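#onboarding

Welcome to the new folks! Below is a worked example of what a typical request in this channel looks like: someone posts a single protein sequence, and someone else replies with the predicted structure as tokens. Don't worry about understanding the tokens yet, we'll cover that in week two.

Example request:
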Amino acid sequence: MDVVNLQLRWKHQFQFAGYYAALEKGFYKAEGLDVRLHAGDPAHQPVPEVLAGRAQYAEGNSEVLYQRLQGKPLVALAAIFQHSASVLLTRKESRINSVHDLIGKKVMLMNLTEDADFIAMFMNEGIALKQVDVMSSSYNLNDLISGKVDAFNSYLTNEPYFLRQRGIPYNVINPGDYRIDFYSDILFTTEAELRDHPRRVEAMRRATLKGWRYAMDNPAEIIDLLINKYRVEKPRDHLEYEAAEMRKLIFPDLIEMGHMNPGRWHLMADTFVKAGLIKPDYSLDGFIYDTSPKRIPDWFVPVLIILSLILAAALLVSYYLHRLNQRLTNAKNTIRESEERFKALSDATNGGIVIHDKGLILECNKGLSDITGFSYQELIGMNGLELIAPESLEVVLANIRRGYDQEYEVIGVRKDGTRFPLSIKGKNILYKGRDARVIEFRDISERKAAERELEQHRHHLEALVEERTAALSIAKELAETANRAKSTFLANMSHELRTPMNGIMGMTSLALRRASDPKQIDQLTKATEASQRLLGVINDILDISKIEAERLTLEQSNFMLGEVMDNLANLVGHKAADKALKLRIDLPPDVVRLTLRGDALRLGQILLNLTANAIKFTAAGSIALRAQPIEESPTDVLLRFEVQDTGIGISSEDRKRLFTAFEQADGSTTRKYGGTGLGLAISKRLAKLMGGDIGVDSQPGVGSTFWFTVRLGKSADAVSPAPTFAGDSAETRLKARFAGARILLAEDEPINQEVSRDLLEDAGLQVDLAEDGAIAIALAKQNRYDLILMDMQMPNLNGVDATRAIRALPGYAETPILAMTANAFDEDRQVCIDAGMNDHIAKPVDPDALCETLLQWLSMSRD
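Example response:
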């Protein structure tokens, strides 16, 4: 047997399944070949190994063509992959979705010759290589995961599997999406091997392709072979994934195994020319293996002599065959006329006609050349699937398999790489004794353009209206952009204000605790009230910014309307009493008993805004609050609330802008009643979010009735009563139950450090202070804490990362960790919970609320 060495591109894996199958199933042995397979690595690559004579055959990529164009005596025997598996992977979070997003980014490639498809992709999109930071591939996917590089050269059959397994979202930048379609995994040899051992070359190719056919038909058997004999470390599901992805690139059911189109090789060579890697006067003569070389057989000369004698005899009897010839001539003319009629009808059709067998074009008309830009000679014998864009291939293949005969639309590709909308209609036929399929191609670019134009006319009756609509749309977009920017700015400002507010209110509270002078107590109380009003303004700004930025989410929990009304009475009752106003709440008994589901806090916020406004603008008389159902179903109820006052009333002109942010009925700088003008705007947006609406009926000097509706769910579950504590404050109970408990306070702002520490120590707790997340981790390693209070934003290491690190420490898996931060958005709370925190306390911190929260979590921890 002939000993033959075959060099693989990389380590053993399913990518080389056909070679294992040919070896194990005896296909090589049957051809008289003793084939030795050699795994590849960076030091043993296919082209160098073959040129050095250490291997007679190998599997390579586009570098095989490049080296041939450089004068190396290489011969391509078969293209295993009809489409290249080479892609660039990027992390989803990088937002690098297209080749243009790679400008200025770090991109790993093997080299210019082995990654010619990537180079062609950049050139086709007008991107110079100097615009991209190209790095030599490390073959280590962690460089992409860690962010060391922005894009990583990968194989569709391999690296995406690892990213999926690790739950890392990714994007794929495929040269095929940019009209670059190269052969891949090419079996090749040398001119010397072909010259000296032509029969061995033919046998090697025949056995290899037979092995590939077997591997595609029996992937599970090859996977077992890889695991048991070749000790491949990949798990079975990875090998199965690799096999499934390879099948999409090889097309074993439609394209002859190893098929190579010379025109496609020339397109690949042209890519090297455009990249400046080779000169344009190249030649591919001798590079593409001829599977059926033309030889003059030994019997040709004798047969030629015999034919000459027969011809001489035929001339002698030609006279007698004259009439027969005449009849044959007439028959030929009839056939020719029939063919001409068929050709005329075929060429007259409004599109292309093609007859193919499993993708191989057997016949076509001039219309197909007109549509695609390929000549008739180029089209005959071509793989018709190359005329279809990669993203449409699955649809076309599925329709071919099931014999679909209705018209459908795909994306076509012309010879110059341009893409166009294409209508296809096919039918299975019998052509020259073989099963085939006739396809009608129609370029529908003009129809699509007409449809788009008709659609425009349908939406825009005249050009002036269209221009005006576009202008309004641009203005609206600019306004919305400005509004979102404003909302983001206000949210950031809210955060920056809440931090010092925590210090102001905390210091005032501490001073008030220790004050004994009545005048000082009065001054500190007024300062506290002013701070509360300022906090209310900040909260309103935060709410309106959340709503306008579409970042406000409504809670869904069970509650009873009676409890919401009781809470409202506690909040505003004293204000009404201070002005000698009668506050009346009218709720039907059946509404009071309803167990509702929704956001009780936001419902209470609307009621508080409207009731507080009614009290503010009413000098004498009464405030009446009513609620009643106006629609009801087994699952939900639409409630209407009314707040009626006997105040100053509102004019019809002022009512038009009443629910606009930062607007009030009295917009002068010397307003009598004060306020930000945000309460009603927030109430309107909240009512809309809760499936309702809001409005007002008013007469100046008589009074106003503000109304709103909300849709709330019904719940059969009972609502747990709110906990009640007789007598003692939360601070007193905290001191009695948990005096001496050790608390870690992570806070970087000095004033907030002092305030929080004094509040905690006044409650009898021991406090250790950490100025940033790194110090907090170090203290947690040294000491055992009963509870940790963690700020989110700190230098060196933020609270979120610090929490994750502390949770990993021994003994801290269940320790309560509470966020105490000025980041007050709902998503900020969710970030804290996802990091392992148990609760979220927004600054400025209310001392009583802080103590209640500490009581809750210390009790749960101790239990």
